[in-house]
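Q: Now give one record:
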Amino acid sequence: MVRPSWLRVPALCVVVLLALTGCSFGQAEGATTPGAAGTASPTPDSRRVSLVQRLGDGPVRNLDVDPSGRWQCRDCAGDGVDATGTLNPDQTRRLQRMLADPAMAKETDQARGYKQGCIGVLTSTLLVPPDLTVTIQDCPGEPKPKVAYEVLLLVTQATPAEDKG
């Protein structure tokens, strides 16, 4: 018999695959975009990052941040509302430094031999093209990958991440 908790895994896999294929979401009606003035300029080695989050059986939050710091978020706060915005120049520079850190390659799911440890907790997956995937769960006692966790904190604190569900 298949455990009910495993039935959620295919849905999350579909979301991750959509994010890996470059699926993006348009601006929702009523969403605002701060002006681009003062944004940090991307360099040729700048990277994009996507975040897919889910709390237990709750809605899936999708956040894409491009190299210039512009972000798009679908169901940002678990309330069905989409939003867009721009990181400030300092946040954009910090994010790009972290994404370029060679330590990220040692924090990938594959390098860590990551396996899902808890059911029903917040699961965050960072996708950094072309091939970095880092999953972080809020499990008691589970170590957090240092650089990837810093990226997670930066992008969630700079965007509407509060779950209202």
Residues 96 and 126 are 14 Å apart (CA to CA). The chain has one domain: 4-24+39-157. The longest strand covers residues 49-55.
